[in-house]
Design brief:
Blueprint (H helix, E strand, L loop, with lengths): L4 E2 L9 E2 L5 H17 L1 H12 L4 H29 L1
Antiparallel strand pairs: 1-2
Organism: Luteimonas marina
GO molecular function, one term: transposase activity
Pfam families: Transposase_20
Length: about 90
Amino acid sequence: GVAPLARDSGSMRGTRSIWGGRASVRQALYMGALVAVRFNPHMRTFYQRLRAQGKVAKVALVAAMRKLLVILNAKMRDQMAAAAAT
């Protein structure tokens, strides 16, 4: 649920917004990304690099949300593999 979905039809180009997926997960990722951008040095440099490239603040924050989601999924995968090995 953090990928922007297009509202296009034929030659008409609509807006892009993030509305897919579960709202509760999306809200938790949003708040987590806000905190990570402020206090995590790696996420802060990622966010600042996107802003320096000319990305809008909200677009850079959504990219941080996605990066946070990938990190959390990898941590879950590694914990499940470690638990299965024992």
